[in-house]
Design brief:
Blueprint (H helix, E strand, L loop, with lengths): L1 H12 L23 H16 L7 E6 L5 H18 L4 E7 L6 H11 L11 H14 L3 E7 L1 H7 L2 H8 L1 H4 L7 E8 L3 H4 L4 H8 L2 E3 L5 H15 L7 H11 L9 H20 L8 H22 L4 H17 L4 E2 H15 L6 H13 L3 E4 L11 E4 L4 H17 L1
Parallel strand pairs: 1-4, 1-5, 2-3, 3-4
Antiparallel strand pairs: 6-8, 7-8
Helix pairs in contact: 2-3, 4-5, 11-12, 11-13, 12-13, 13-14, 14-18, 15-16, 15-17, 15-18
Length: 415
């Protein structure tokens, strides 16, 4: 025990380039949002009636744009501030953010919303419409108004039954409520076409009426965003302007990148981790461009994308992904069958004392991983008879990817 205590004390005393790594995490909410004033102003204009005449109507807004363009951040900060303004006017307005990659049907969404609001509604053995009606009655009893943000809304559209989609988007067409207490923000990745193709024309018109686009970030914009985070995440002087300039020009939409701020922050974080290791070994005192080059060479863009996506996956979805990679490495196959994935997944769960999920849930996880672009699936392979599901992985090396998965799995189990 003394040795362990000494190890802990030694790690605490170890010098680091970081002050606070969490500032670089995707879920961190900065005190200032850069380059999204236009979108915030549009949200304020559209939700103004919720403050002036609460309950007179239900506002619905669609936010759409590529990954890493500030949609989630803008929605959360707007929700936080408008709730404060409402409170100053004695209006009980709450903002709830639900990720539809985890809550993919109406029941799941209402369950998460009511839990966030600390409202008690029995949800066993009732239909989705009955649960929705009970939820609205409870809001009325509490004299509460709600802005419900549904992030990654495309997952809900892909998996929810038509009646659930109709109930969420056209809620007050179904339930004739005089006071309309629920307002919506729908957040989708990519083009609005991701929505149009999944709903009828009338429902689509509801969504497109208030559409706010988010464009990829330019290099100069990314530089400022990175600079803001560096000042809070690293010790002074550890990250020079040349490093920020290099990452921003590598990532900026106008300089050949994809304009993804989350990915740029992930590269900076990984470069910082390399510098931290070099600092401990006496080889460096600051983050350099060479650390960034090492990240790009070692981590691979595909692996950086994977790390970005892992923050939105559940523990067992990550365990299934680990099973896919292990099955590929151990079998030597480019595409592995579902049966081998399930066997490997059961072993992975057994090793860490987790109860494995059933076949249907595993297939749902694989579908989600495919939709996120993390895995590739085929229903037939040359030289194989019959149709079955075969799964492959992207460009990142299996060993490096497995190492990253193990780190995230440990973090989730400790948390």
């Amino acid at each position: 025990m003394n040795e362990l205590r000494e190890l802990i004390e030694s790690e605490i005393r170890r010098p680091s380039v970081f002050i606070d790594e969490s500032v670089l995490y995707p879920e961190f909410i900065p005190p200032v949002i850069r380059y999204r004033d236009k979108q915030l102003k549009q949200l304020v204009e559209l939700f103004k009636p919720v403050i002036l005449k609460p309950g007179a109507g239900s506002v619905k807004v669609l936010l759409a744009g590529p990954v890493g363009t500030g949609k989630t951040l803008t929605s959360i900060v707007f929700g936080r501030e408008i709730s404060r303004v409402a409170e100053s006017r004695s209006i009980k307005l709450r903002y709830v953010h639900v990720n539809c990659s985890k809550s993919r049907n109406l029941v799941g969404i209402i369950r998460e919303a009511k839990d966030s609001l600390y409202l008690h509604i029995p949800d066993r053995g009732v239909s989705s419409n009955e649960l929705l009606s009970a939820f609205l009655k409870l809001l009325s009893r509490e004299n509460m108004y709600l802005i419900l943000a549904l992030d990654e809304f495309e997952y809900f559209l892909n998996t929810a039954p038509p009646e659930d989609r109709h109930a969420i988007i056209r809620m007050y067409d179904i339930l004739q409520e005089e006071v309309k207490r629920v307002n919506m923000i729908f957040i989708v990745r990519g083009s609005p076409a991701n929505v149009w193709s999944r709903v009828d024309s009338v429902t689509g018109s509801y969504l497109m009426k208030n559409f706010i686009p988010f464009e990829p970030y330019r290099a100069l914009e990314l530089y400022t965003i990175l600079k803001d985070r560096v000042d809070a995440a690293f010790h002074q002087g550890v990250v020079g302007d040349e490093v920020l300039d290099y990452i921003s020009k590598m990532s900026g939409y106008d300089t050949g990148g994809d304009g993804n701020a989350r990915k740029a922050l992930a590269v900076l974080h990984a470069a910082g981790k390399l510098a931290d290791k070099d600092l401990a070994d006496g080889r460096a005192t600051r983050v350099t461009i060479d650390h960034v080059r090492q990240v790009v060479a070692q981590e691979y863009p595909a692996l950086i994308d994977l790390l970005d996506s892992l923050h939105y996956l559940s523990l067992h979805e990550i365990l299934v992904l680990k099973a896919v990679l292990l099955a590929m490495r151990e079998s030597g196959l480019d595409y592995v069958p579902m049966s081998l994935i399930e066997t490997t997944y059961s072993k992975v769960c057994e090793e860490i004392g987790e109860k494995p999920r059933k076949h249907t849930q595993i297939y749902t996880y694989l579908t989600d991983l495919r939709q996120r672009g993390i895995i590739i699936t085929k229903t037939s392979l040359k030289g194989r008879r019959g149709r079955s599901t075969y799964v492959g992985f992207g460009a990142a090396p299996l060993g490096a990817a497995l190492q990253k998965l193990d780190t995230v799995i440990k973090q989730l189990r400790v948390g």
